[in-house]
Amino acid sequence: MKTQGWIPVTGLLLISLLTLTAPSFTAAQALPEECAGADLFVMPREAVLREKPKANARVVSVLPAGTRLKLVAAGERFLQVEVPTPPAPGGAAAGYIAREVTAVFPEGAEATRDLVTVGRTLARTETYRRLAAAFLLRASDRLREAGTPDPSVELLLGETAEALATVEGISTYPAGLAIETRPDLPGGSFRHFYRGDAFLRVLELTKNQSSGDLSGLRDRAMAGLLRSRYPTTSASLSALWQETAAWLQLVESASDPAALVSASDRLGSASLALGRYLLATGKTDQLATLENRVGPAGGRVAAVLANKSHGRKLISRSGILHAMRGDGTLSFPQEARARVGPVERVVRIEGKLGALTLTSRTSVGSTHELPRRTVAVPVLPVPGSLHLSPDGRSAAWVEVVGPTTLMPVVASLVKDEPAREIAFLSDGRPLRDRSLAHVVGSISGYSGDGARLGLSIDAWNETPGPHPRFTVVSVATGELLYETSKDMKAFQRLLQ
Fold it and tell me: What is the pLDDT of residue 24?
């Protein structure tokens, strides 16, 4: 490879040269590699394409860094080039460009290897990742044209293109790189996503081959392909089924560390979203099956990877799925009863998904029953979590607020006020917990007089702590009365 009239350079030296001003160039320094048909690349920043080989000639296009050009003829200060794909509508397909803003790669296997070497080095730096992607894309094309495709080059291209798509401030990409622009979510803002073409080529090139190195390439390519297919956690039940199954299969079979890290993180997110759907649709048996696969998958990740945190994180996601299942019954309907003297009060969560109600019914003896009253509007309660206070004045349950958040909720049966999460009623630790990524709460029970409510809360960002925290709050005010992670005797005394 030659750049800007200099002697051949390595990829590492090229990085340092990118920041230097190019030396003056004379006709005597013309490079033999600058022959018709050689590949040129604009670098390191954008360059102008002029109508004539003059510094004051009309500008016909502005070419971003990494634009690949085809050399037509070399001149003293300017190179006559063709643009294989005009960079924008109306962009010129040919013109002249100053030689000092180009890198030249002649035809041949040696220059193709240079493209790979420089591309691999530049890909490590976000500033030059667009240029790296252009080099690697052309190296991939050359290798396939020569009948010698290389799966390791394809993988490097795919991972570079995928990383480039996440760099903010880039709106155009090298032609043929397979980066698409589409909404992040339906109706959401637009984002760039890599389509995964190079990952598909890796899987095709390594098909039916299971040697150590190729197995690792296949694992990483499959992880990349799944990230391309599911750039964000799916929103529909059918898509979540497919996504979770795909990540599970990869976690259960892959051996490459990078692939396992990626797959376990994505499996955790997809499985929790799927679990919430399964709970909402009454598929608790399938929710149990999902839990029983995710937990061992996390154990496998912890056993294979030196960094145990990824496996522990996935195991904790399995614990959230277990908490979602509650007692294994249905999320709705469910009911709880309490008797105070001759008065019996019954609270019941019933209705249809999206239109659930918590109703309260009071009866005196066996003949007199007061009209049923709607008290609150639950969204998705944990099965078996509904509790009625012994005095019949309040009810509490655990609400699946989101895929990673299960929060206790309390509702008054004697006051006309909305149900409230315990976190927002309390001004202490429960409220701070609400800001963490994962919150799993459960109800330990009411005190004998119904004035206090006992809770167990686990809250964490990466992995849960060694013990949950046991909390007692005032039902009337939400005031935090007591909390501990060890002194269970004191906790129990407050609930007597």
Answer: 32
